User: What shape does this take?
Amino acid sequence: SMIIAVAIGLPLGLISAVRRASWVDYTAMGVSLSTLSMPVFWIGIVAIWIFSLNLGWFPVSGRGGPVWEWNGLRHIVLPAVTLATTSVAIISRLTRSGMLDVLGREYVTTARAKGVPPRGVVGKHALTNALIPVVTVVGLQYGFLLGGAVVTETIFAWPGVGRLAMTAILQRDYPVVQGCVLLVAVVFVLINLLVDLLYGWLDPRIRYE
Assistant: This one.
């Protein structure tokens, strides 16, 4: 889900910022605002109704095996996309606002005056400096995805940690609940540690002592 959210949200926000006040910008931000306003469980139910019951493209629920196999990949598409919709909206809107702020800076104007190609200005000078707040939100959104996975896994009957925790709570299996909470907490801490390390790679002015 996070891979999908970054792969869609980052280019969407970048294109919206570069083509500000165009129909592309209005369409992208309108779609992101719509998905941000929809609850995850409703998106999952609608996705099942459209892509599983009507079109028959993907299975309704369950797990079909490892994700690197075709059957397993078909089973994970709908849960992953459903869980990623909210993060796509947040990442795209934050990328757009960050890019609009950076594109108005003096060093970007200087790079354009020196004859740097537009792709170089946007990709090397602007995007790199606008990624720091985006990376921060990606780390925080990972925690949201871990929490939202409980609802998504219940809807799609996906045998994941979220559904395991929910079943353990209903059965009052406290050791399993503690194990699930501990696992989620450790993963969240490691992701935020990786985010802190990425700061120094994105911005050479940041150093850790």
Summary: Helices lie at 2-18, 23-37, 40-54, 70-103, 106-113, 118-155, 161-170, 174-202. The CA atoms of residues 83 and 148 lie 7 Å apart. The two ends are 34 Å apart (CA to CA). Residues 118-155 form the longest helix (38 residues).
